[in-house]
Amino acid sequence: MIISLEKLPERARELLKEFNYKDSSLTDRDFEEAELIIGWPAQIRRDLLSRTRNLRAIQCLSAGVENLQFDALPSGVKVFSNAGAYSVPVAEHAWALVMTLAKGTHRPERKTTSYVLRGKTLLILGAGGIGSEAARIGKYGFSMRVIGVSRSFKEPELYDERYGLDKLDEVIGGVDVIIDSLPLNKYTKGILNYKNLSKVKRNCIIVNVGRGETVDEEGVYKLLKERKDVRFGTDVFWRRDGKEDFNSKLWELENFAGTRHTAGAEGSPEILENAIIEAVKNAIEFLKYGKAKNEVKIGDYI
Hints:
- The chain is α/β, with parallel strands linked by helices and 302 residues long.
- The protein folds into two domains: 2-84 and 268-300, NAD(P)-binding Rossmann-like Domain (Rossmann fold, 3-Layer(aba) Sandwich), CATH 3.40.50.720; 87-263, 3-Layer(aba) Sandwich (Rossmann fold), CATH 3.40.50.
- Helices cover 28% and strands 18% of the residues.
- The strands form three sheets. The chain has a seven-stranded parallel beta sheet with strand order 8-7-6-9-10-11-14, covered by helices on one side. Strands 2-1-3-4-5 form a five-stranded parallel beta sheet, covered by helices on one side.
């Protein structure tokens, strides 16, 4: 039995026609019989997990899984993220923010600070699907030298230099553009903070399309107040009381540009449907073969 907590599009239902699945009118018995649950991490709550008896896996619809209640997972249950499903649209959005800040198109005033990107050095934080697509655009679209800082590299050939997260402080001062596409876990929370951000070059552009909490909000605000040459853009904001809060004081700054988490599923029904399809395909892969892409290391979150 497959349970989806999100209504499935017709294409997804067609893929699941050989399986027993439900995506509406779910009962306690459905949860007891479920081998696999598809849903957003925030939907898969502790009380829901306590009703399962045969659960083998959870397939998340989002690339980030930090909202899942990992401490409530039944023993042996595998978790799969939807990493890669949003790579192209989010990477494009990241570059839209970079271009906005480079050319000053977010401000009505006439500026003389337009910034040329071609041939500059790009730092990618988090070299998974989104990071790889952003690296590709930088490398082939703007002839940039690309440095990657990540725990793993999906496409290592895209990077001129590759480092682990522990080397961030050593390389951050030598780059012109930083794109953060990191997931949020115990290793990445606050990884961009005032101490290392204060080392960035003059006119550095920093963009976050990962998770808000990978950047220290107070630290980046302090930096932008002190250094008008540095520019910061984000599509992701910091959570307060469990909810992403777009009312940041960063909006008052001229060297900030933001969008309200519209790069991925929230921005387009097409992106959402394609992401659901990818999640369903991955779930089917697990049920058929016992393994699938994007298995989450649960220890990263507990």
